[in-house]
Amino acid sequence: MDPIRGKVAVILNEYAVAINKGYLDGVEEDMRFIIYESGEEIWDPGTMESLGILEKIKAKVKVTSVNEKYSWAETYESDIIPSELLGVFMLPEYLRDKKTRVKLPLGDSPTFGIQYIDRNVKVGDLVRQIVD
User: Fold this and answer.
1) Is-above-0.85 flag for pTM?
2) pLDDT tens figures, 44-55
């Protein structure tokens, strides 16, 4: 089965987006998607055969609500504030090893990788279902 592909249609907030695929396209609650930018072609150095196009991942989201032609999806991964940072940043004790949900990168500070990539999530970014 081929993964479902679409685009970011709306950015709701720093945790949620709408994608332009819904139940008519086979989307179901709890499906996971990557939001990505298509990059350069990758070549096998030995055979010079194309290995495919690099997908520069910006975020991972999980579908929380499905409509006919679109779906809402939210970030689902968490970051943990390490205990050793408590003293460095004078963080209160209640933040010890606290999990915080990863935010969608929406700011305008560029990140550099293989080639410049704007890692900020925008309307029109590509999405692809994560198939396990």
Assistant:
1) no
2) 999 999 999 988
